[in-house]
Recover the amino acids of this structure.
């Protein structure tokens, strides 16, 4: 069943609510066939060999939530390959790696739209009979008679506001701080046949508020080039291969390690080269980037940041599915090396009441195995982080030996009208000692903005020296509505190390005990139609007795994201 908009998106921009919010996602029509697997939900289907179908209360339901460890804010997840393929979906055809939200293809998750717009493929709109949306004329503009050359425009405007009772555990800002931010990302994708394409994207952002603080380049950005690259594609050694050269997003890593700074305001951008190859069940990706210096407060003044580097390799295998009761589970196994070099506050080490400034070069050797079935999903990953730290003042070198473990698993009761998911998330990030300035460093760091809502909606706690355990409950009572509840409990992995926030270690003195606190939190996602999403987050950080005695404060947090995309 294909569901159309009740009102055009222009009315939404004028503030008129849609009459039929069920236009959340374009659904496949497989359930119309009485012989399809959707019409016979008890039939055992190998999801790696044929189309998956999910039937809930007699209808197919595309879900708003994502596979574990994905994380586009407000992006609906498509659960069947049928919904990934034109004219129901816009992701490129990467074979088995197109499954789920397509995260395993290496270009980031794709709902109706992608976190990386260049991961979308709108070429099916070459057939004008498939146009069913106000913005379709902008998604495929033929430049040649046969449509082999075409242009696609993309856009996103996001309005975000948030308020904090005790910002950063009471260490920054003023009580009751409230802030507002706007971000615009608009781009063009030029395809010159099947082998060459150029992509460009502009960005600008601004912020204001009351009792505000920290309106730096994370939140404010004059108009500049966010992405600009050329991609060359061909077939090589029986694989779909490509080379991407220029400024670009990079999302081929678990989002709890590295993400695109999606929730704050100004996304990350990398400069360099990336090559990929995709076989039927194996995918490889190699890359070498340097960062982008966005500190200049002028238009089109971004420069290459040669002091920040990111490079590595990712190999993903799609193993054959396996049975779990009456269902079969399809999964992916990632093996990766993610290496980086960074300085500044991201590399600084706490030492007693001071901070040791320097530069760190680290290598993450790790794996992630993730997948699911209609009633079950899971993700488990681990890594070892080696490398070194060089102290700025003396040039002293110290070795790094750290590790991390991340897992989530849960059950989904698909026959229920609420479509509930009940799971458990567990995370461990090693700690070291902030009481000595020599020897091996054991504190794990993730400097490139891992998904902010993965651990803690408030973002007050960073993935360093941390043990986290949380129940997860998601409800999807409608295909346009999703609710999620979490309540992570936090401990320090090492009581000899500090509590860490996104800007480094907190300077709490006389902190005793390992327990840090508990953060009950909830999120509500409304996929109002194909173009408009509203996501709200609420949380209460309840600090432990030891944290509050050391100077930390408890407080409430609220965030709203109102996003328009085309």
């Amino acid at each position: 069943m294909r569901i159309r908009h009740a009102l055009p998106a222009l009315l939404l921009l004028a503030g008129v609510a849609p009459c039929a919010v069920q236009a959340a996602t374009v659904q496949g029509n497989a359930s119309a066939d009485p012989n399809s697997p959707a019409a016979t939900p008890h039939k055992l289907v190998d999801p790696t060999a044929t189309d998956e179908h999910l039937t809930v209360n007699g209808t197919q339901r595309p879900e708003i939530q994502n596979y574990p460890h994905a994380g586009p804010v407000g992006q609906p997840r498509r659960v069947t390959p049928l919904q990934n393929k034109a004219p129901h979906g816009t992701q490129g055809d990467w074979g088995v790696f197109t499954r789920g939200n397509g995260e395993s293809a290496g270009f980031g998750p794709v709902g109706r739209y992608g976190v990386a717009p260049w991961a979308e493929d709108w070429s099916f709109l070459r057939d004008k009979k498939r146009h069913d949306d106000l913005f379709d004329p902008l998604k495929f503009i033929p430049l040649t008679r046969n449509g082999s050359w075409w242009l696609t425009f993309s856009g996103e405007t996001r309005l975000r506001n948030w308020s904090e009772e005790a910002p950063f555990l009471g260490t920054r800002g003023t009580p009751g701080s409230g802030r507002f931010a706007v971000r615009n990302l608009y781009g063009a994708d030029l395809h010159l046949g099947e082998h060459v394409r150029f992509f460009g994207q502009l960005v600008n952002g601004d912020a204001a508020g009351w009792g505000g603080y920290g309106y730096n380049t994370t939140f404010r950005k004059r108009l500049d080039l966010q992405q600009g690259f050329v991609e060359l594609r061909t077939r090589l050694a029986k694989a779909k291969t490509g080379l991407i050269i220029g400024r670009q997003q990079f999302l081929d890593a678990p989002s709890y390690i590295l993400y695109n700074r999606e929730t704050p305001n100004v996304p990350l951008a990398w400069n360099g080269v990336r090559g990929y190859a995709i076989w039927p069940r194996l995918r490889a990706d190699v890359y070498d980037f340097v960062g982008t210096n966005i500190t200049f407060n002028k238009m089109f003044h971004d420069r290459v940041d040669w002091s920040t580097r990111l490079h590595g390799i990712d190999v993903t295998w799609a193993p054959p599915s396996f049975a779990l009761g009456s269902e079969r589970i399809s999964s992916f196994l990632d093996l990766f090396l993610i290496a980086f070099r960074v300085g500044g506050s991201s590399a600084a080490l706490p030492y007693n009441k001071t901070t040791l400034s320097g530069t760190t070069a680290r290598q993450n050797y790790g794996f992630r195995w993730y997948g699911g079935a209609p009633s079950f999903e899971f993700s488990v990953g681990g890594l070892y982080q080696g490398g070194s730290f060089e102290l700025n003042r003396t040039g002293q070198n110290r070795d790094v030996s750290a590790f991390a473990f991340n897992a989530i698993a849960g059950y989904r009761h698909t026959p229920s009208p609420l479509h509930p998911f009940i799971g458990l998330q567990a995370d461990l990030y090693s700690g070291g000692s902030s009481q000595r300035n020599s020897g091996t460093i054991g504190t794990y760091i993730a400097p490139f903005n891992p998904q902010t809502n993965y651990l803690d909606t408030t973002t007050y706690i960073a993935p360093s020296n941390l043990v986290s355990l949380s129940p997860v409950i998601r409800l999807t009572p409608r295909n346009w509505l999703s609710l999620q509840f979490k309540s992570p409990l936090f401990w320090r992995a090492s009581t000899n190390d500090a509590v860490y926030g996104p800007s480094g270690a907190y300077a709490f003195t006389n902190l005793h005990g390992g327990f840090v606190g508990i953060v009950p939190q909830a999120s509500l996602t409304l996929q109002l139609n194909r173009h408009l999403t509203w996501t709200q987050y609420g949380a209460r950080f309840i600090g432990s007795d030891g944290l509050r005695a050391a100077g930390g404060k408890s407080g409430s947090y609220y965030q709203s994201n109102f996003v328009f995309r085309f």
